[in-house]
Structure formats: structure tokens, C-alpha cells
Specification:
Length: 177
């Protein structure tokens, strides 16, 4: 399994201070992508036991409460789901109250069609707080949007989405509740 990088004190990838984990590999290749170096599934770095330990250590460093942001590449493509699952499972075991944000080019509706056949994807969606969904569309780019790059993308409160069985779209202010 491969990853593109880790930012241990990120203030750009979500509310508060985040540890941002960048997956390696993406099937979408969106025009104007912010991270095209993450497209190649063979790029980046080999994920090891030490990598996992460095994520846990970064989340706890200096007693500062951090959130976890998982970005891409494409975290929820078939190649990356096993790694994202393993990270979330370990992080939730070690730090159960952590907030987790996941960015994906897939829509929630398309992911929902696959959860019955993919227990790891189901686990991921059931254990994250926010899903930012939809492909980046350069023609819809809007730098004023919080946690999104284009206006077609949505921030979904996953607890409410799963409870009501329909997307619960939220805005900037609701992320900070």
C-alpha cells in the first residue's frame, strides 16, 4: 500500500488543527487538480508500521487535540479503501472521540450503492464525521467555499446522513458546532 504524504499540523484541511493523510492513486484526474502528483498508484511512499505509528503520534503530539483529514489522491477508490479502513480502525481504537474528515470524488449516493458489498467502505462511512463528496470541477471553482474547491462538492454530516438515510448537507458554521 502506498501514500502520498502526511501533514502533521494542518490548518487548511478542516476545522481546527488536523493531521492530513494523503492517499496515493486516483482514477479521476480532474482538470485543475490541486494534487496531480497523487494520481499514479505506484507513486508516493510505501506505507509501513512506522507510518501508522507516526500518524497516531502526530494526533497526540504535545497534548493538542487534532482531527484527522484523509484526502487524495482518491481515498475511497478500490485500491485505497483497505488502507483508509486500517487507518480509521486504528485511530478510532486509540482515540475514539477524534473527528475524521474524508474527501472523495465519488458522491455519497454512488458510495451508498456499494456499501452492501464492501464491509470496509461501510465501516469507513460509519466511522467518519464529515464526507466531502464530488469531483473537483475547475469551471465551478470557488475559493470562498469552506473545505471544498468547487461548488458542486458537498460537506455531509455522516452521523445525520446515516441516521436519516439521506445526505445531510451542512455549511461552514455547522462544521464547528
Amino acid at each position: 500500500m502506498r501514500y502520498a504524504g502526511i501533514i502533521k499540523n494542518d490548518i487548511a484541511s478542516g476545522p481546527g488543527i488536523c493531521v492530513s493523510f494523503f492517499t496515493q492513486g486516483c482514477p479521476f484526474h480532474c482538470k485543475g487538480c490541486h494534487n496531480p502528483e497523487t494520481w499514479d498508484y505506484d507513486g508516493g511512499y510505501r506505507f509501513t508500521y512506522k507510518t501508522m505509528e507516526s500518524i497516531i503520534e502526530a494526533l497526540r503530539n504535545n497534548g493538542i487535540k487534532r482531527n484527522l483529514s484523509i484526502v487524495g489522491g482518491e481515498p475511497l477508490c478500490d485500491n485505497n479503501i483497505p488502507l483508509v479502513y486500517a487507518i480509521i480502525k486504528r485511530v478510532k481504537k486509540e482515540i475514539p472521540d477524534i473527528k475524521i474528515n474524508v474527501w472523495t470524488g465519488f458522491t455519497y449516493e454512488s458510495l451508498k450503492n456499494h456499501i452492501d458489498n464492501n464491509n470496509k467502505l461501510k465501516y469507513i462511512l460509519n466511522n467518519i464525521d464529515y464526507l466531502i463528496d464530488g469531483r473537483y470541477i475547475e469551471e465551478l471553482r470557488d475559493i470562498t467555499l469552506y473545505m471544498r474547491g468547487s461548488s458542486n462538492q458537498r460537506i455531509l454530516d455522516m452521523k445525520e446522513t446515516l441516521k436519516n438515510n439521506e445526505p445531510c448537507i451542512i455549511d461552514y458554521g455547522e462544521v464547528y458546532k
